[in-house]
Give the backbone structure.
Amino acid sequence: MFAPLPPMPALPDPHAVFITHEDTPRALTEATLDWVPRHSHRRRRNALRWLITAGVLYSLWSLSGLLIGLAACAALVGVYRRRWNSDPARTFAMFSSVAAPGTVMATRFGPDAFDIQLGADSHRRIRYASIRDLAVTTEAVTFREGWHYHTYPRELFPDNTLELLVAPAPGTTPAASTDSGLPALPPIPSLTEPTTVYFVEPGTTSRLVRVPARRYRVRRAIVFTVLAAIYLAALYLIRGGAAVPPAAAGILVLATGFSIAYVIDRNKRERLLAQRFPPGTAFAARFGPEAADLHVGSLRTRIQYEWIKNIVVEDGVVELAGIDGGVYPRELFPDSVIAYIHALNAEVAASR
């Protein structure tokens, strides 16, 4: 049905090249797991929310109310931990795929951004001004770009390029970049003979954020409702019916606060995505028999169909579960392509 995909063009004139070995997935996994607890803005934000919740419970219903609430949370977290694999297992599996032994990785640095190519599967351009929470070890370089975390082998970043990655003050560029003398990076090669091309329209980036965010919000609302029900039932059994109405009012206040925080976070995501993909930005896809090439803004990537855990089509958006950042406009994925992936990938077909 589809012709084989051509090789991804090699990164021209790289500053560093690294060939992964058997120990690379382990080193990248350890660097990521050491970095995330110290720098994850999501975990810090969630911890702040739970601290506020605990403070409200304690202030309204003293120690007994706090203990009941913590017991309800612990019970639900236990269920989730049994349902999903641990972070180390998932992280190691991911790096075993993208950094399998023998994978050729390369970097090229420009005055305001650097290109990184991971084998035949990814060519990404990352702006220095978007880098946050940089950590450098003898084996890896780890940082955050927006809501995405990146960990790469240390060998891809020569010592004289590390100062380029340091986050500048808001509204400025790194001092090192202005004095680097590096030439501008060439354009990322476009797809040859793309199957589909879509140009971003006003409202596209909003859809790409709101559709998956709405599903996320529904799941979190279910979790919150279950916790609230467990809490109120335990409170009724321990302290009687008189304690339930004020407790329900407190829970309603918490739910309102969480909803406001959700809207603020969603709007921020929309603004950032609109800056990355202004109207007129081209999204292109070319589908092969076993994989698809996608060129979206400053990222060109090859997605193996076997990596896809599920395909969700909703309100003009296609979400590829199991793919980092795998949310795309519906126009990129014709019905025939979605049907083909369902037929080829047994895991996707089973979850359809």
User: Anything to note?
Assistant: The CA atoms of residues 84 and 90 lie 9 Å apart. Helices lie at 24-39, 41-83, 87-98, 175-179, 204-239, 244-276, 335-344, 346-350.
